[in-house]
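Weekly structure sync - notes
Attendees: PM, LS, DV (DV joined late)
Agenda: review two folding runs queued last week.

Item 1: First target. Sequence and structure tokens pasted below for the record.
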Amino acid sequence: MQENQIYSQQEQPLALPRTFISSVFGWMFLALTLTAVMAYFTATSEQLLGLMFNETGLSILGYVIIFSPFILVLVMSFKFDKLSGTALTGMLILYSVLMGASLSFVLLIYTAASVYKTFAITAGTFGIMALLGYTTKTDLTKFGAMLYMALIGIILTLVINFFLQSPRLDYIVSIIGIFVFTGLTAYDMQKLKKIGCSIEQDSESFRKTAIMGALRLYLDFINLFLFLLRFLGNKK
């Protein structure tokens, strides 16, 4: 009896992060599935495409769909403490659907075969780096800080290049982006594992934090996919 209690106490710390990570990936896979379904539905619907685009380019609705996911991320991040688990769940679902609509251009520009190939490579790379982040004993905190600084640089460069339209600069940013989001996958996974070791299971905080963790990994995956697609995608 006493040996069983000791064994149970030893297993509990291991079970906590595993349960939390399982919940994180469950929400992440739900978000990715909604995004993929909505992207396909939008790309194959003339009515939806007609609402998003007009003769001059994006319509007002199109701009709303493109920029509203960014606003949702900010609200979820800065209002995390005040939002309930139900509210965060609804916002994650809405975010995933809107992202699917805004990413429908991928299926319009690139061939289906190259999109599937890039998705498979992204999934493999993401899985390897997530496993590395979960199992490594090396503290990735400083590494993560540098990656987030590089991410800020990428965002600023993309904004500048929106006006410059430099293919060479776009190429350089894409290469850096692949390395940044590959590294961030490992860093974010390690950080989520640490959170899973300390968070109270079956609590409201557990659910909310798992949703935000899923959002973080979702963003790593989507951005890695988009940067890889610039090199591996074949345009129609």
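Item 2: Second target, run right after the first with the same settings.
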Amino acid sequence: MQNPRDFLKDSIRLTIDFSKTDQSRGLPPPPIQKPAPPEAARIDLPGKEGWEGVKPVTLVEAIANRRSHRTSTRGDLTLPELSFLLWATQGVRQAEGAHHALRVVPSAGCRHSFETYIAAFRVAGLKKAFYRYLPLGHQLVEVAAYDNLERHVTQMALGQSFAGRSAATFFWTTIPARMEWRYGLAAHKVIALDAGHVCQNLYLACEAIGCGTCAIAAYDQDYSDEMLGVDGEEEFTIYMAPVSKL
């Protein structure tokens, strides 16, 4: 039986033949944003000039105060605050066509394999539903609305009830083909590393709006994929984090 620790070492031990990756074969990379249905209504998010409630916080303060919070008040998030958190975790600084973009978080080879979904429970101006973030236009698109969304999200988090008591819970899915295009068999490791970069930005950004979060890696894979409407193969859930007012 293979030592489970080898999962973290295999992409170093393996001799990756990069001459056989889709990049080296001259194939175009996958798009950096999953298309939204043409008929889906898009919700424009406030830009930086409209981020009321986002207070200046020094980097030292943000790092020193960062911790995981599993309790919450009943306070709502504002749309500007949610806009800020989405930008801080997957915002685009510069798009270079449909296939490359520089973002506010690092990613191996600038591949950025993630899509961001939000379960909005108490976000002013949004109805209770699942949404997906469209970073290229800094917009949201509704994915699905369910009765008793809180119960579904708690079940997605394997019964961790604080995931369904938040103002909004972030879900990140990965589209592995974006990373595999450049890294082939090594893609799985850097996708996991990238997830940490994204969620740490969420922790730090929460310090600027009086919120707390707690990263969750224990979730029901199949149920989470089903609720978010992804196929579990070409796109699947990889991480989640509830956000609440403190």
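Discussion on item 2: The chain has one domain: 6-144+161-245.
Action: LS to circulate a short write-up before next sync.
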